[in-house]
Structures are given as C-alpha cells and as structure tokens.
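User: Teach me something about this protein's shape.
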Amino acid sequence: MSDEIIPFRLEIPQSDLEHLRSRLSDARWPAEQPGAEWSRGVPVAYLRELAEYWRTAYDWRAAEAELNKFAQFVTEIDGQRIHFLHVRSAEPDATPLILTHGWPGSVVEFLDVIGPLTDPAAHGGDPADAFHVVIPSLPGFGFSGPVIEEGWNPARIGAAWVELMSRLGYESYGAQGGDWGAFVSPEVGRAGGDKVIGVHVNAATFGFIPFGPVSEEEKASMTAAELIRLDRLAHFTSEGSGYFRIQASRPQTLAYGLHDSPIGQLAWIVEKFKEWTFPAADLPEAAVDRDRLLTNVMFYWLTGTAGSSAALYYEATYTRSRHSTPSTTPTGVAVFAEDVAIRRYAQAGAHIVHWSEFDRGGHFAALEVPDLLVADIRTFFRGLR
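Assistant: First, the predicted structure itself:
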C-alpha cells in the first residue's frame, strides 16, 4: 500500500450478515444468576431482547449507507493499515481537526458531530468556527485492524496521526479525543510540535487523575465535585476495572470468546455503555440510540477486531511512554457528568488553558451530548486559530 491514500467504501458481503443472524438464532444462553439486575453483569433477559432486535430489526445496510455518505480512505502508516473519514468544510478558513475515538468505541462515535463541526452555519453556529475533520480508526480497531505487529501504544499512534495529517497536506491543526483518544491526542501534540495548535480531551483518565492514593490532607482541600470524582474513580478501580485487567494481560485468550460469539461481543460492549453513560443507573438506550450502539458493535464483529482492539490495553501497559517534562501544547478539558478528571492533577503534565464541567453527559460525549461537546470544542479552538 506504501503511502498512497486510497478511497474506501463499506461493502460488507451479504453472507456475513446472514452468518451473524444465524449465529444469533443459534445462541446458547446461560442461566440468570441470582441477585439484583446488572450487579453481576448484563442480565440475560435484557441481552436476549437486545440480541433479538439485532437479529430481526437492526438494519446494517442503513448504517452502511449513512457512513458511506462521508469520504473514507485507507492508507498504510508505519506498516499498519489505517482507515479514516476525511470530511472537508466548505469554509475556506476552516481549521483541520483530527478526532480519536476510544474503546469500546469506533468512528461511529463521531457521526453526529461531523455536520456541526464542518458546517456550523447550518447548525446554528458561526462559520468562523468551522473545521475540516479527520477521523481515523485506531490501529487494531474496525477497518484499521487487526494489528500486524506489537508496539502500537498511544505514543506510536500519536506519531502516526501526525504523519496522516502531513499526508493530507495539513501543516497546522488541532487534536481531540476521549477515552483512548484522550491518551492519543496529547501524544499528537508532542509528536507534532508547533504544527498542533491545541489538544482538547474528554473522558480523560491517566495524566488527568491522581497517581496513587490521595492523602486526607489533600482531600480536605478538594471541592465537592472533586471528591465525587475521586469516589467514582475509587469505585472504578475496585469494581469496574476487571475488563481493563483482562485486556491488559490476556487479550489473546479473551479474543477467542468475543471473536467467535456475537452474543459475547455484544455483552462485553453493552455493559460499558450501561455503566459509563449518564445517567448510569438507566439502560444504555437512555443515553445512546440503540441502532447507533449496534452499529458500533458491528465495527468490532464484522472486522473480527475484538482481540486486536483489546491489545491496545496490553501495549499501553507494557510499552508505556513516560514523559519527564510537561506538555507545552495548549490543552482544553471537558469534564462530563460521569468523568473523573481533576484539574489540579491535570495541570502537572499538561498546559491547561481551558477547563469545562458539565452536569450531564457521560463517557461517550460525542454520542450522548454532541451539542455540548461541539460547543466546547468550538470555544476552546476559537482562541487558538
């Protein structure tokens, strides 16, 4: 493939869709465990109903057509196939912006923000806030997968994104991302240097939270909002990080079950949409459209990338790049209602120039509250153009 940029369209064979329906029909279901719903994982009744909807009502061809409305491409960077959307604004002075998703997300996360970002005038905004958007699939995820060699940690991905933006002819641009995107986007800033005018993140964790225990003296100086985030982080560490530990230690073993079973893949992803969206006490559909959620699951199932996407946790754990000096790239942080970022810790390693806090929205902000995320991105970059 070399460094050529090749147009790409989603054209999944009908046989793949029929195979999925067959596997859903023939699923072997476990017994429901005793106890409160969701306390031991995804309830059988809920998942059976969702799987039946996936089998009989969900329309992949409609989702495929929606995605194919946007220009898509593939290229090879550092030996790895990279799939990306590239949507240019009609505004001549639009700012290039590379958007990075996380796990268990995909480029599907950003479908509702492409229009407002590229054509703000058509969405009640100022044309001066327009962006050209580049939305790559992370290496090992979706149509950028599977990975063909080890070592694809956030620093390597950040360098690959800088190369991608260079190939597209952009010499000055911004970076935005959540979850893994909040790891990768600061690395874009480091690798791109002066080319990167700013980095905006949401769903930020490592580098934006305390490293290790927090003393009682430190807690005494915290605001009520910071203490709530600290409690949320403690709960995640003790109760909600099992998936992380498995993916960071045994991604290959996990891959057998998720790659072979659409029910397993669905459960593995939908649990996180239930726990990480706002309000977390409700079903995922309270925050994210059911069809959009299933399209996101399809990006994992159709590409067979459950294992290679999980491997990003392994790579980040065992090939982590530690920086001895703070980043100098202007950084903006959006903290939504289910996020855990705390400014006093973020400032230790990042040049924070913008900080917003919201009382709604969760981990998947681009899906849950695209209006709030778009507005915050516009505000942050408005002073950096």
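Now, about its shape. The beta strands are 6-8, 72-77, 80-87, 95-100, 131-136, 173-178, 196-202, 330-335, 351-357. The chain is about 45% helix and 15% strand. If you'd like, I can walk through any region in more detail.
User: That's plenty for now, thanks!
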